[in-house]
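Quick one:
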Amino acid sequence: MSIGIFVSQTAEFLPGGLVPPIAEELDLDVGLVGQMVSVFAFTVVVSTAPMALLTARIGRKTLVVTAMAVVSLSNVVVAASPGFEGILAGRVVGALAHGLFWAIVATYAVEIVPREKLGRAMAFTTAGGSLASILGIPIGNALGEAFGWRQAFIAVAIVGSLVTLVLWRWLPRIETTKGRRGSSRLKFDRSALGIAMICILILILIVGQTSFGPYTTLWLEEIAGFERATIPIYLLITGVAGAVGAILAGNLYDRYPRITFMASGLLLTAALCLLAVVADDGFSLQLVATSACVSLGFAGLPMMLQARMMQTASPQMRRIAGAVQTTVFNVAIGGGALIGGFVVSGAGVGALPLIAATSAIVTTVLAAAWDALRRRRPAADQDEAPGADERAMLAISTTGSISLPGR
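Output:
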């Protein structure tokens, strides 16, 4: 599943580095071709929760295997399309499958590992997305430069096809959770409030961090005074630090969930605040160490929020909770990048680390306050509260989440 996420995430962002050759071959404006990424993200935002609800009675293994196969096929369609319309059609189909795949995989780990090992399982599964941002896109772009942009999409399709076969052969089958019958009334699931709160935490954290993330290279050049030749080394070091942070958080979260989350949030906040102080001398040990702490602190936070989502959601709500969190993540990524662009044009790129630090500390404080409130509540409001009808949660959560600016 982790490799499947790697392939799916790589497919999402692959066009970002292939826009110039695609525009040149098709004789199109670069800005228009760049919308390949936006169309994909917008499709994920508006379709994931409805798709999860519509497929609720289909076996989850069947959905995982089918979604991975469609992701692979969509990349073949993109590679074979003679015109831009066919490329966009392939991207939309791939986005539909991508959103559904993410939503189901997010809940799958809950069913096949013991509850006390959920954090580690989530860390391992979501590592595929982290690796895609570190290795997948550069590898795809290198293939595009060496063999052509169409071959880059074909390569992703081939790997995705192999993953499909592996999932079909070895992924354990789990039962499909069916909603209650016999009542037409929409009942409120007691885990819905916790799910909504985690969605808010995801929005605040990811919007702040992605307002800075896409402009890291610009910040390194303009504020830190980096030479362009040293930026790949910096990105490799911070990428490795992020992988280490995800592993550490995954292992510690199962035993010390609140302390691990709090420590990660405080480390991220402190390191982001220090960036401006140590960013005067170009490539320096102080800056690299501080940036590594940023990656260490942030890497485990999305995974911990996803694990908390699955622990909070009742069994009847897990599939829709996975769909909603996928939607919220995509909204936050797009909204954060948009906000970052406005800040760069206004206050300047130097303000971005402080915005990211603010989002980190607000997320940490809100999570701590929510935990304290929950500890005072009756046991009936705790995790694994019995669920009712998934449509109630869909009405509550998706209306607000997709109203934010998308990518």
